[in-house]
Amino acid sequence: MPTHYLACDLGADSGRVILGTLDNGKISLEELHRFPTGATKVAGALHWEFDRLLNELKTGLKKAAAKNLPIASISTDSWGVDYVVYDERGLPLSPVWCYRDSRTAQGVEIVTGKVEWPTIYSITGIQFMALNTIYQIVTEPAERLAAAKHILLIGDAFNFFCSGVARNEVSNASTTQLYNPTYKRWSKRLFAALGLREDLFAPICASGTVLGPMKKNLAAEVGLPQIEVVASCSHDTGAAVAAVPASGENWAYLSSGTWSLMGVEWSKPVINDQSRNLGFTNEIGYGDTTRLLKNIVGLWLIQESRRHWNKGSKKLEFADLEKLAIAAPPFISLINPDDPRFLSPDNMPGKIADFCRETDQPVPADIGACVRCIYESLALFYRVTLRRTERLIGKKIERLHIVGGGSKDATLNQFTANALKISVLAGPTECAALGNILVQAIALGHVESHAAAREIVRNSFELKTFTPQDSAEWDAAAARFEKLLS
Q1: Every domain range in the chain assigned CATH 3.30.420.40
Q2: How is residue 455 annotated by DSSP?
């Protein structure tokens, strides 16, 4: 008999409420409700419209109720690092800040004035990114933190809204750069150094924790019974990696979307001078595994470029951009996606042109040349990242699984196979929602193990394989590219 689950999957650009159905060893997904999540600028600062997003969730729940199906549970996954402050009454305080807000620069100064960077990394194993929670929280007004009962990360705040139980699930907690993966708790040392209360963030729970039934008033409002609320993997990458359809060993993953998260599932954190200097991060995955990975600016480069180009009368779809890139000549110009200038929004093509001028390369001649430059540069950065990962773990990677929205981009997938010189398996696209749902199913005893959940994904979706081509050309381009990284 089919079993049904709900996933609220929140990305930095859009959110979805998705119905998952598990039936006879296969899983299928149906999008019930999609809505924009993008941050809003208020008086020059970037905020999330938290109340609106909760109302979008309720709209999705009402659509689920209208299906009149026996739904077992719900869980939310989201981007990491951002958080909601709650007062003593359990009400959220405004604003809910966006990680791209410029205040984080001040936060970096405050934190590094109190704790040296090597110490922070040795405690947390998280790569330096100015957007991390640690650099956001220290810019909060003291009176706001004093009034806070607890703080929840975004996905966990949605689970709290549904259940009334305040927990920060570990995959999300590990993104904050305030979590110690060795001792498996919030870092007392960092909290003390930064003058933060030890109880400021709500307690941590394991991936796949059943929080309890949906709040009675919410269930009545949306027309659902009091279904179970599960903290599956509240971080979207944690959820996506949980659903990677891999088997055996010697594989890596690339969760390809606005961000590219590339790494391996490992048994324990890798925290040393080499991993710190290479910018690798240790986030927690399902089953208390470590997601040793590198955060890479991904399709954000394309998304922001398209936003700039579409300010005119002509509107370009992503498929149009891909066609233009295929027609453009190869390896004219390359960028370093890790350059900090590419993190912020507005006129991405102009930033790419500036980088090319500064590195004595031709400025991309047109839209196709610009998109091709982005594709090739991302593929070459994936190559560098994979080689560095292999050095850190002492193992050769034999295949790469690309999941998420970017797995549909055949050109970028082929370029990635060419650059890495290994087979690339692409799909499925909705891995965050899949992982979210499958961890719910494991938590409720409907799926026996993580390995069984991954087998369900393999049985349910067709994966596309890309094999390496044009190796000599890509090797030559890689030699050019690595000079840009210094």
Answers
A1: 3-236, 244-427+448-486
A2: H
- Report the b/e string of 360-392 with b at 16+ CB within 10 A: ebebbeebbbbbbbbbbbbbbbbbbbbebbeeb
Distance separating alpha carbons of residues 206 and 233, to the nearest angstrom = 9
What percent of the chain has a predicted confidence (pLDDT) above 70? 100
CB of 404 closer than 8 Å to CB of 241: no
User: Is the dihedral angle over the CA atoms 42, 44, 48, 53 positive or is it negative?
Assistant: positive
The domain made up of 244-427+448-486 has a fold known as Nucleotidyltransferase; domain 5 (3.30.420)
Q: Which of 9, 101, 236, 338 is catalytic?
A: 236
* 145 confidence band (pLDDT: 50, 70, 90): very high
What pLDDT, in 10s, does the model give residues 1-19?
A: 899 999 999 998 899 999 9
State yes or no: is 236 an active-site residue.
yes
> What's the CATH superfamily of 3-236?
ATPase, nucleotide binding domain (3.30.420.40)
Question: 144 Cβ partners below 8 Å, 6+ apart?
Answer: 85, 93
